[in-house]
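Figure S4 source data
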Amino acid sequence: MEVAFSLEPASGLVPVREVPLLVLVGLTGVGKSTLAEALGLPRLPDRRALVDRYVLPRYGATPPIPREERFRLTGRFREEFPGGVAEVLLRGYAEPRPLLLFDGLRGEAEVAYALAHLPQALFALLHAREITRLKRLLARQDAFDRARVAPEEEARLKALAQGVLTEEELLEALSLAPLEEVLAKLKIVAEEKKNYDPEGPLRLLRGHPRALVLDAEGLTPEAEARAVRAFLRERGLVE
């Protein structure tokens, strides 16, 4: 169930920084939404909703827009507000609950900001290789996962894959879907990696007392949910 959230004080709402949070961290395709569903916790509006409401309008953009344009505008937002979406969270007000879930943060700067400014937040980081995320994007057929791919971009994207996928991984992806579809999804994975180094949050959260790092390739969603519940139970947040 999604709870009320606002950037303005309102009756019945309290500052988000005063509410215990479970923040999911990870890039597109690691399984954050699946984990959120399995946990069944009351939720704040997710990252996509906060960007749609509070970031894109700042630059005159109205969703839906291609993912690469979202990356450009959220990058522009981080130039003004280095904490990115974590700064939106910090400024917000929400219904008080024993525990709220937020899906999710990306990148070292957002996670560092949240660690510093949201003292009641705990973090569950899901990590997976780029090929795994690409394959999941190809499988899920979400209209949100659209990127424009012009014919002249194909050569550039194939070159870009060299820094993201091995040749064998690219061939594997090309066996799963038409070239145009693979290129569109690869563009998302590559642009996201460029904008949010996946190693940054790992450096911050691996071994941190407020964080749990999950191997999103080696664990099933059910096993991830059990691990998160155990993590929360140790801290007295769930029974």
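Figure S5 source data
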Amino acid sequence: MNRYLLDNDRPEAGARFEALAELFDPWTFRHLDGLGLGEGWRCWEVGAGGSSVPRGLADRVGASGRVLATDIDVSWTTPAAGGVLEVRRHDVTRDPPPAETFDLVHARLVLVHLADREAALRSMIGALRPGGWLVLEDADPALQPLSCPDEHGPAEQLANRLRRAFRTLLTGRGADLSYGRKLPRLLREAGLAAVRAEAYFPITSPACEILEAATMRHVREELLTAGLATAEEIETHLANLDGGGLDLTLAPMITAWGRKD
């Protein structure tokens, strides 16, 4: 069984990737650009999922650089392949790391879902050249578990109840919902230098509504099978999303980075 609840082989994945790109790409590249990402850099994007981050990396490294984008399912990334961007199927917890070293290794919303996060972290650090940067970004749903912090009515109460149900599914698949806050410590313990971290907490973005609707449709059958929600509750929530007016939020995205000396 695929333990990743939000796998890429469903049509809802496309809407999720677009919403995640709108929400988080500016945040991600603010940090990557701040580290000096540019012409000639060699980058490994782990668990790429969609194509927006690999494309952004390729634009920045130019013709003299290289971007390797990997995932266990590359169906959404492959159309972007070409030029300096290579797309490769790869399981970071099981497969040997690439036989090369990189100036930047980046993963967003990947480790939180993996059963063997320690193996993945070792693999990514091992692929860094001296002076290279590891940048990890993961949510921390345990830190902020609500869909609507301002729970002032039935629609908000339902949204929060379904968010709790979704979190139950995630933990049942082995996700660590408090992983994001651990990133700075884990990078220091792994021997990286100049470790820093920041958190981003989007509130009331239209992309939050798109992401929520796509996620609910993606996990609908799992929620029903587990008895965590009824079909009426899910349809009511989707209708509430279509109607607008819900001040939806997401779990904080914690970005941590460190340098290999």
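The mean pLDDT is 94. The longest strand covers residues 128-139.
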